[in-house]
């Protein structure tokens, strides 16, 4: 449900040519079924004139309610269309969580 909510908001705000949202909560030290850690790959023309930090701030602004609540972390990979054309299939995996699987 949270994944779909994030996708709907990002679709509406950025009109992306590519979007991929992965729930990576299972890789972290959270209870089963948590929807708290996400990896977002977002490709939009709206990023063409923006640097990485500004792109991330734009995404954080759109997802402010989610970040203030249930979502603990976002791994953001934001690209302009021209950048994406040169980088397809090279999005790096998220690093492993140090505490994964150790919830007591």
Supply Rg.
14 Å
Share of helical residues: 25-40%
- Our estimate of the beta-strand percent is 15-25%
Mean pLDDT: 84
Query: Could you tell me how far the N terminus lies from the C terminus, measured between alpha carbons in angstroms?
Result: 26 Å
| DSSP summary, beta strand count | 3
CATH topology: GMP Synthetase, Chain A, domain 3
Q: Structural class per helix/strand content?
A: alpha+beta
User: What gross morphology would you assign?
Assistant: globular
N-to-C order of helices and strands: HEEHHEH
For the record, the CATH class is Alpha Beta
Task: Walk across the major sheet and give the strand order.
Answer: 1-2-3
Number of helices: 4
Protein name: DNA-binding transcriptional regulator BolA
Family: Belongs to the BolA/IbaG family.
InterPro entries: BolA, BolA-like_sf, BolA/IbaG_stress_morph_reg
Structure characterization notes:
With 104 residues, the chain is of the alpha+beta class. Helix content is 35%, strand content 19%. It contains 4 helices and 3 strands; from the N terminus they run H-E-E-H-H-E-H. Strands 1-2-3 form a 3-stranded mixed β-sheet.
Quick take:
The chain has 104 residues and is α+β, with helices and mostly antiparallel strands. Helix content is 35%, strand content 19%.
Core attributes:
GMP Synthetase, Chain A, domain 3; 104 residues; 3-stranded mixed beta sheet; 35% helix; 4 helices
Topology:
Blueprint: H1 2-14, E1 18-23, E2 37-43, H2 52-62, H3 64-68, E3 73-79, H4 81-87
Parallel strand pairs: 2-3
Antiparallel strand pairs: 1-2
Family: Belongs to the BolA/IbaG family.
GO biological process, one term: DNA-templated transcription
Pfam families: BolA (PF01722)
């Amino acid at each position: 449900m949270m994944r779909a909510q994030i996708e709907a908001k990002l679709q509406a705000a950025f009109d992306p040519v590519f979007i991929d949202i992965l729930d990576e909560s299972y890789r972290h030290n959270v209870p089963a079924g948590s929807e708290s850690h996400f990896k977002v790959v977002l490709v939009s023309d709206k990023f063409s004139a923006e640097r990485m930090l500004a792109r991330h701030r734009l995404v954080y602004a759109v997802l402010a309610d989610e970040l203030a609540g249930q979502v603990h972390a976002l791994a953001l990979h934001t690209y302009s269309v021209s950048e994406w054309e040169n980088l397809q299939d090279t999005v790096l995996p998220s690093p492993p969580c140090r505490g994964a699987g150790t919830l007591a």
